[in-house]
């Protein structure tokens, strides 16, 4: 089951990088959502929209080189973004033939606590590991943040490079969220004498925003109009 | 996501008079229905002959095909029950069933079998008992074979057809977000072409077959109710005006029920219907030959299981008879012709069930209930015929609907049970009629599961009108024959449906991947280098309220006297870096 899920989605994951004068700096992960070259990722990765590129890596079952000195990249631009909910829709600027499965977009509504999940991302992209990793977890909770964003907490410690990758519901086989970061409980008590702000703890709980926000961007872009 | 999609579709199509129709399907179906009814009424005998010839040819030359198809579909449905797709939930992993399990069963059962069971529960075993193809008529062996054939015709095979169509429709509509319409089932095979002419033809065929199936059985059914009523009550004549009044009454209740919608109208009537029917069955079970029935139920099940492979593939190849054309093949054609209607209705009420639950609920439970029903009524009749006063076989051959009342008369308290039987018959009619119109409404509204009220009224009334016109003008039997003949093209469609559903299920969770054609891509090449992680990892905006975010300085100030451990972990550096993070915009200006 996990193997099938990984095989289905790995090919859709790409490295998100930025062109910095001939070299590329790693930003995070983006994943394909549409046959015309659209990808979703986390908005905070693309807060500066210049020089964005995506890099496809081999997704087969062979042993892959762990790192590449040179990569061939495809330019992308930000076509829609929702900063409040931390999702952005990118589009490839080149015309590339892309096949996507018949259906793979689920909804955070389908996640119940305890559900098996899988996240995919270039976990150690910052450290030059150019391979997407499949990581399993289960759903810890579904919460609404103070700015009313629907978040899925899951019990794995995502790495910095996982941000922007897909969170997949394993038994449903559909993407239910966009990995946003590690959960960081802010210990802030206001209006009390002993208020304090402790630095962030590295928890082993991560969070993803509901894919519905991404689907909303796709709808705003008119990607569902002929359906 | 799927809900909002239908919403937008609805808004797009809502225009004048709050109609929501698929123009091609709606108007073509209505025109074809009116045309056919007109032709049938004006050229009754010619049309009747033509349809009979067609139906005869279909039975003779395609009987083997029906038998094979039914078994193929049953095997496929059972493989789904045990297979790896069993835990896919209709509507997605988080979907919750719309109806309670009992309410669901009640609706399945009322739409699926309905009225036929009431009449044929008594009549069919009697027919097979006196004219058995596989045993000496009138012997205990004939009785056993008679019950076996009745189980075959009303058992797993018809329900597997309904389960297939219902499952395919529910899966493609609720999980893939396609319109709830027969055409959607072929998405894996036809792709976007389902929205074109091929899809329209499929939907028009389903609409017309459903209308003729439901309307003709309404027309024929009221004749039977009328026969029963005048048998019971001498002052009621057996004529067209009584039957028209019955059609009008049934259509009125059905319209009310369709307008009230699935949740109140149809569900309420189905549950009422099942409760009253259960009461009638219990009545016969307790006041009839109880021990004989209970013995028979177990034995019939055993005989059914024992003979299942041979009987369900039996083609009378080595007997030079055509008994099967009139019975088994007729039934198979009938169930297949009804499958778009019943399947669609089953799909509509099964949102939120897993595939395994669905098949248990649609294949196994109704089959067992049907077997119990057939045993109670059929074996009571057989008991009367074999060990009692007899005379039932004769009554059955004279008039099928009356045979039910003849049987009830041989039991105590027949005045009460006959009235209950009439109530059951009428409620079964209403539930078939209202679910039939609802299905036609949904298809002709392009898959909108909550079509506008004016369209619901239109189709419910048209159904009554077609039944009445055929009743007065003649041609009920002719058109029913025509409806059953559509079983042949539908059987081919059903096989395609198995394949299409299989592809859809395989592609649902895994099986298909993303493909990126970068082999030929000559893009710019870049050097890579190690990078610093994003400073905004673990976005504060989600954890701090907006008021706190604005006062970042104050809220983020580290504790004046940090503990030593705090320092060692290098935490203050981290908190410095988070301080330098630009304040989250929150997207709200």
Automatic annotation (TrEMBL), chain A:
Domain of life: Bacteria
InterPro entries, per the entry: Peptidase_S1_PA, Peptidase_S1_PA_chymotrypsin
Pfam family, one: Trypsin_2
Name under which the protein is recorded: Peptidase S1 and S6 chymotrypsin/Hap
Automatic annotation (TrEMBL), chain B:
Membrane topology: Multi-pass membrane protein
PANTHER family found in the cross-reference section: HIGH-AFFINITY CHOLINE TRANSPORT PROTEIN, HIGH-AFFINITY CHOLINE TRANSPORT PROTEIN-RELATED
Main location: membrane
Keyword field: Cell membrane, Membrane, Transmembrane, Transmembrane helix, Transport
Compositional bias ranges of the Polar residues kind: 574-583
Domain of life of the native organism: Bacteria
CC per GO annotation: plasma membrane
InterPro entries, sorted: BCCT_CS (IPR018093), BCCT_transptr (IPR000060)
Species whose genome carries this gene: Thiorhodococcus drewsii AZ1
Keyword Cell membrane found: yes
Region (Disordered): 551-589
UniProt entry tagged with the keyword Membrane: yes
A Pfam cross-reference name: BCCT
Ranges that cross the membrane: 24-43, 63-82, 102-123, 156-174, 194-220, 240-262, 274-298, 329-351, 358-378, 416-445, 457-478, 484-506
Annotated compartments: Cell membrane
Full protein name: Choline/carnitine/betaine transporter
Similarity comment: family membership: Belongs to the BCCT transporter (TC 2.A.15) family.
GO molecular function, a single term: transmembrane transporter activity
């Amino acid at each position: 089951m996990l193997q099938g899920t990984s095989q289905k989605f790995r090919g859709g994951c790409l490295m998100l990088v930025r062109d910095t004068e001939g070299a590329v700096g790693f930003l995070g992960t983006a994943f394909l959502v549409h046959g015309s070259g659209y990808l979703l990722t986390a908005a905070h990765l693309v807060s500066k929209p210049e020089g964005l590129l995506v890099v496809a890596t081999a997704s087969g079952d062979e042993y892959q080189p762990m790192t590449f000195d040179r990569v061939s990249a495809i330019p992308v631009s930000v076509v829609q973004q929702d900063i409040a909910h931390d999702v952005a829709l990118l589009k490839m600027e080149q015309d590339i033939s892309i096949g996507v499965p018949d259906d793979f977009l689920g909804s955070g509504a389908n996640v119940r606590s305890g559900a098996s999940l899988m996240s995919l991302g270039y976990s150690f992209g910052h450290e030059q590991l150019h391979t997407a990793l499949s990581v399993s977890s289960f759903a810890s909770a579904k919460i609404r943040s103070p700015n009313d964003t629907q978040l899925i907490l899951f019990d794995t410690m995502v790495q910095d490079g996982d941000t922007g990758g897909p969170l997949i519901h394993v038994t449903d086989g559909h993407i239910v969220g966009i990995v946003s970061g590690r959960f960081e409980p802010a210990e802030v008590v206001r209006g009390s004498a002993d208020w304090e702000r402790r630095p962030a703890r590295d928890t082993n709980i991560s969070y993803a925003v509901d894919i519905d926000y991404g689907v909303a961007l796709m709808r705003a872009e008119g990607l569902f109009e002929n359906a | 996501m799927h809900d909002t999609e239908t919403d937008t579709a609805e808004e797009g199509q809502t225009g004048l008079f709050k109609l929501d129709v698929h123009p091609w399907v709606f108007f073509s179906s209505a025109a074809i229905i009116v045309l056919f009814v007109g032709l049938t009424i004006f050229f009754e005998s010619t049309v009747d002959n033509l349809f009979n010839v067609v139906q005869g040819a279909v039975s003779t030359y395609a009987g083997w095909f029906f038998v094979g198809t039914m078994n193929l579909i049953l095997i496929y449905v059972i493989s789904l029950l045990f297979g790896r797709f069993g835990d896919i939930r209709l509507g997605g992993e988080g979907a919750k069933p719309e109806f309670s399990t009992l309410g669901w069963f009640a609706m399945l059962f009322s739409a699926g079998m309905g009225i036929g069971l009431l009449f044929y529960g008594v009549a069919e075993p009697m027919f097979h008992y006196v004219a058995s193809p596989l045993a000496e008529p009138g012997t205990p062996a004939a009785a056993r074979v008679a019950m076996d054939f009745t189980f075959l015709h009303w058992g797993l095979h018809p329900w597997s057809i309904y389960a297939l169509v219902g499952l395919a429709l529910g899966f493609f509509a609720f999980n893939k977000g396609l319109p709830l319409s027969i055409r959607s089932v072929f998405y894996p095979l036809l792709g976007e072409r389902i929205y074109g002419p091929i899809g329209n033809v499929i939907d028009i065929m389903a609409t017309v077959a459903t209308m003729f199936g439901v309307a003709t059985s309404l027309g024929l059914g009221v004749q039977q109710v009328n026969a029963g009523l005048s048998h019971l009550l001498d002052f009621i004549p057996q004529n067209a005006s009584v039957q028209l009044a019955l059609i009008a009454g049934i259509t009125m209740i059905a319209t009310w029920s369709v307008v009230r919608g699935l949740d109140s109208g149809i569900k309420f009537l189905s549950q009422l219907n099942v409760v009253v029917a259960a009461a009638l069955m219990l009545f016969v079970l307790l006041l009839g030959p109880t021990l004989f029935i209970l013995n028979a139920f177990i034995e019939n099940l055993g005989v059914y299981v024992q003979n299942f492979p041979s009987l369900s593939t039996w083609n009378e190849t080595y007997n030079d008879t055509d008994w099967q054309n009139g019975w088994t093949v007729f039934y198979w054609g009938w169930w297949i012709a009804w499958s778009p209607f019943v399947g669609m209705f089953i799909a509509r009420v099964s949102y939120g069930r897993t595939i395994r639950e669905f098949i248990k609920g649609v294949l196994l439970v109704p089959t067992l209930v049907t077997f119990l029903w057939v045993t109670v009524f059929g074996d009571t009749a057989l008991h009367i015929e074999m060990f009692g006063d007899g005379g039932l076989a004769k009554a059955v051959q004279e008039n099928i609907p009356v045979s039910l009342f003849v049987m009830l008369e041989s039991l105590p308290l027949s005045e009460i049970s006959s009235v209950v039987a009439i109530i059951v018959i009428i409620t079964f009619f209403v539930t078939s009629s209202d679910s039939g119109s609802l299905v036609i409404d949904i298809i002709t509204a392009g898959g909108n599961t909550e079509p506008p009220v004016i369209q619901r009224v239109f189709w419910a009334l048209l159904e009554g009108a077609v039944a009445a016109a055929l009743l007065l003008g003649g041609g009920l039997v002719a058109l029913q024959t025509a409806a059953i003949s559509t079983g042949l093209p539908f059987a081919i469609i059903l096989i395609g449906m198995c394949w299409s559903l299989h592809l859809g299920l395989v592609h649902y969770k895994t099986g298909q991947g993303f493909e990126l054609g970068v082999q030929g891509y000559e893009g710019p090449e870049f050097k890579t280098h190690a990078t610093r992680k994003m400073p905004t990892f673990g976005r504060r905006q989600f954890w701090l309220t907006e008021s706190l975010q604005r006062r970042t300085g104050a809220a983020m100030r580290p504790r004046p006297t940090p503990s030593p451990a705090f320092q060692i972990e290098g935490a203050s550096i981290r908190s410095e870096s988070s301080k330098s993070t630009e304040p989250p915009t929150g997207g709200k200006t």
